[in-house]
Structures are given as C-alpha cells and as structure tokens.
Automatic annotation (TrEMBL):
PANTHER family per UniProt: 50S RIBOSOMAL PROTEIN L4, LARGE RIBOSOMAL SUBUNIT PROTEIN UL4M
Disordered as annotated region, ranges: 43-95
Family: Belongs to the universal ribosomal protein uL4 family.
Name of this chain's protein: Large ribosomal subunit protein uL4
Gene for this chain: rplD
Pfam family, one: Ribosomal_L4
Gene3D superfamilies linked: 3.40.1370.10
Lineage start: Bacteria, Pseudomonadati, Pseudomonadota, Alphaproteobacteria, Sphingomonadales
Amino acid sequence: MKVKVQKIDGKASGDIELNDDVFGVEPRADILHRVVTWQLENRRGTARPTRERSDVARTGKKFGPQKGSGGARHGDRGAPIFIGGGKAHGARKRDFEQSLNKKVRALGLKMALSSKAKDGLVVVDSLELKDAKTKALKGLFDKAGWNGKVLVIDGASVDDGFSKAARNLPGVNVLPAMGANVYDILKHDTLVLTKDAVEKLEARFNG
C-alpha cells in the first residue's frame, strides 16, 4: 500500500510503501471489541474492600457485669454494633484485570491501524517545529486539514517543543510508537504517523 508523505505544514514530501501485513488487514468488529474491552478493564483500579467482622483484631473477652445491665453480655468487640468493629455487609474486593492472548492483541492493533489507513491516516516526514508555539501549531494543523480529535504517534523521542505546544490544543494527543494502542487509535478522527513511527510499528510485528 502506497501512501503520500507530507510535511507538517501540509506540503507534499514524496511517498512511502506501507506493509500490507500491518496496514492492510481487514478489520473485524469482534476482535476490536475484545481488545478495547481488555484495555479499558485493565485501566480500572482494584475496588478496595472494607474490613468485616473477621478482619478486625479486637478482644473476645466478655465485658460488663454478668447481672443487672438489662441486656446481653457481649463477648466480641469486633461486632459491627461497636465503634471500631467490622462493617456488616461491606464492599468486597473486585479486581477487573483480564487476560488476552498476545496474538489477539497484536491482531487488534493491526486492524486498528488498517482501519485508519483506509480513512484517516496521515504520514509526515518529521515533527520538528521552528516556532514551538501553540498558535503556530494550530495554524499548521488547520492548513493541513487535521480537524477534530488528532492522535500523533512519533517513532523517536517526541520533540519537546511540539509536545508542549500540542498539549494545549483540545483533542490532540501525542504518543510514542511503543505506546500505540487500539482504543486511542480508534477514538481519534485522524491518525498522524511519522516515517520512523511507521518503521517501528512494522518492526514491532516483524521482530
């Protein structure tokens, strides 16, 4: 698959051949759904449990007189009716982590990249900025026609000036090539890859 390469200002900068094994896979909704669900579930924190009666270390010695109180003679300070006792019917620990086969994860990422290659993929030669200002970057994005939510994936370490300027633009996110994931790719309208990011993504699957 051949794709045109452009500069960050939208000017043409040649062509690049994309590997069909990575960018030419037919997407399947069930695979993408499994991978996205796996990612989002693993981002959730563990639901913290409360300490119940058996989890509280309190004395089991009977307190109060045997006679004359008019009530039962309790023998457990850990009972829920006492201050410092365990909670009755408290929240239980819940862990949301799921497991997913590595081959399915890799296939899902290929399908996400392929879906953007059909519609919404832009390849640029580099992300270097002469004027690392948010206003200047916004002008370049408008000139290139990158509207809506834009995900930028860079192969090398992201240029510090570009990263700081992009941070101030709503709907724009920057990720390294090794941090590319299905959920972030699919939820953005435009995917911008640098040429070295393309090489790293292809090497990630071929290595």
